[in-house]
Amino acid sequence: MKIISGSLKGRTINSYDIEGTRPTMDRVKESLFGMIQNNIKNSVCLDLFAGSGSLGLEAISNGSKCCHFVDSNKKCIDTLKENIKKFNISDKAFIYNKDYMDYLKNCNDKFDIVFLDPPYKMHCINEIIRFLHQNKLLKGKSLIICEVDELYLEDTNFLIRVKERKYGDKYIIIFENNEF
Questions:
Q1: Which of 6, 46, 73, 145 is an S-S bond match for 62, by CB 3.0 to 4.6 Å?
Q2: Where does the pLDDT of residue 152 fall: very low under 50, low under 70, confident under 90, or very high at 90 and above?
Q3: What's the count of helices (H) and strands (E) in the chain, helices before strands?
Q4: What pLDDT, in 10s, does the model give residues 63-94?
Q5: Strand pairing category for 138-148 and 93-96
Q6: What is the distance between the alpha carbons of residues 53 and 151, in angstroms, rounded to a whole number?
């Protein structure tokens, strides 16, 4: 797995072999970042189920101001720390070894871009989206990018579904905050 664009393009991302995790394929990541490229520069990002940090690292490589990486798995966090150290971007990366809801309940930041790629059988994205909205953790025209295995996401009155793409057995769905 590699960084596919930006200042870190071509750098290899250390990965891991943990049951239940599946990194976003490079071709999917390339397509996704092509769709959001105009929103990345100087953004504050949240990679909520970070794993090795592929999506957040790609955002930093493409000009994001910073990314908050959250994962409850210690092995994922250790791998993420190695990647951040290797890429010399520790000033732009904030790492939290926490359950996603524990992190969100104690979060004081607001985000321009949120990456949601939980384990597929978890079905927690609707809950997270509602929590982000109710607790005002989204900035103006923020984006929420969801990677899911089935189309179970609820439409809301505060988000607009701006893009939806299918890649093999997964979907990438991009929502834009409608309350700004």
A1: 6
A2: low
A3: 5, 7
A4: 999 999 999 999 999 999 999 999 999 999 99
A5: unpaired
A6: 24
Residue found under tokens 């943990």: 18
| Alpha carbon separation from 16 to 25, 32, 35, 60, 103 (Å, rounded) | 14, 22, 27, 21, 23
The 3-state DSSP class for residue 170 equals: strand
**Whole-number mean pLDDT of the chain?**
89
Where do the H-state alpha helices sit in 41-158?
54-61, 74-87, 100-105, 125-134
Instruction: For the chain, list the domains and their CATH numbers.
Output: 26-177 (3.40.50.150)
Can you tell me the distance from the alpha carbon of 88 to that of 75, in angstroms, rounded to the nearest whole number? 20
Query: Residue 22's pLDDT is what?
Result: 55
Question: Six-digit token pair at 25?
Answer: 């394929």
Cβ neighbourhood burial of 14 (10 Å; 0-12, 13-18, 19+): middle
